[in-house]
Design a protein that fits this description.
alpha+beta, Metal Transport, Frataxin, Chain A, three-stranded antiparallel sheet, 3 strands, 36% helix, globular
Length: 74
């Protein structure tokens, strides 16, 4: 298991809020668009019941400009 395994939507959303992201709007299907309050940077976050795939979470962090270590410490 990797360091990013086992995260669910609620925990990822909570940590994104710590970094200044807020829910902006619903996206296609069961996805949401979150926007940074200062920079306006956008990320798409899947709102599923299961654990988020590690690759998906890495992509979200890359789009958000958040390092894995910073995310894990938040």
């Amino acid at each position: 298991m990797g360091r990013l395994a086992g995260f669910r939507y609620r925990e990822v959303a909570r940590r994104l809020r710590v970094f200044g992201y807020e829910f902006d709007r619903h996206g296609p299907g069961s996805h949401e668009v979150w926007r940074h309050t200062v920079t306006g940077r956008k990320v798409t976050l899947p709102h599923h019941a299961n654990d988020m795939a590690v690759g998906t979470l890495r992509t979200i962090l890359r789009e958000a400009g958040i390092s894995v270590d910073d995310f894990l410490e938040a």
